[in-house]
Batch of 2 targets.
Target 1
Amino acid sequence: MVTIRLFCAAGMSTSLLVNKMKEAATKKGIEADIAAFPEGQMHEHLEGVNVALLGPQVGYRLGAAKEICGPKGVPVNVIPMVDYGMMNGEKVLDFALKLAGK
């Protein structure tokens, strides 16, 4: 089981990406717990998480996110703009898995 959390401005468009990522995980036979939350709630949603991803619209918060995620051992990075814009769940899932070392 891999646990992935996406953080964005409000969680709206990212929830669509979450669904696409879940579909991609199912196709690949990967058991995944994927959910999206507002970036301001990051500190509340990291328990048991393998990787955290930021939506491009909050990419400027990467430094702060690393300060929150680092002590918990959770890798964090910004979702590539093109993959986010295209809602490419498979590529974003692969990006997350690579960050998580899975």
Target 2
Amino acid sequence: MNTNERKIYTADPSALGLFGLAMVTLVASSQKLGLTSGTSFIIPWAIFLGAFAQLFACLKDAQKGNVFGTTAFGGYSMFWFAVAMSWMIQHGVFGESMAAAVDPKQLGFAFVGYLIFSVYMTIGSMETNKVLFIIFVLIDFLFLGLSMSVLGGSHFGHELAAYSEFAIAMVGFYGSAANVLNATFGREFLPLGKPFGIFKKAPVAVKKAA
């Protein structure tokens, strides 16, 4: 072995990614719950926490060869980039003609697409930990509510999205804290819950020929 070779360690980015998710959903849910109004001050949090923090986590998970983490953090980071730009279009940042031509139902179809994405990611999350599984179930309800609200004008859908998003924030903060403190203390300080162990099969030992 070359003595000049150095092993490069990449820290688990889950804590930062979950913190970004928790922050942006907390701020965004305040508007849906009627505690705040407008989206102007949600946009910076959508870009820097929802988008960039999760994009950073995505790239780090990619270095670790973590397909699930890369896809999850990458997919939702791009969601928040797109939502932030959608709000900016509504506010006229890209011109009055673009703002006037907005069709909210196009955003509704995007929510349906993310609902489909979230459902199969929820299945994958069952083999990670239970806290992450709960977050994904809540994300499913969030996109179900958003789809119902935007495409069907459902008040129940709006309420479902609002409370689901707030719950995502709370569980996301817990998940972020658990990842930070467990790694820092070198022990299970806050439990994340073991995988369900339903779908993932143990590797089959291959017998070598004599």
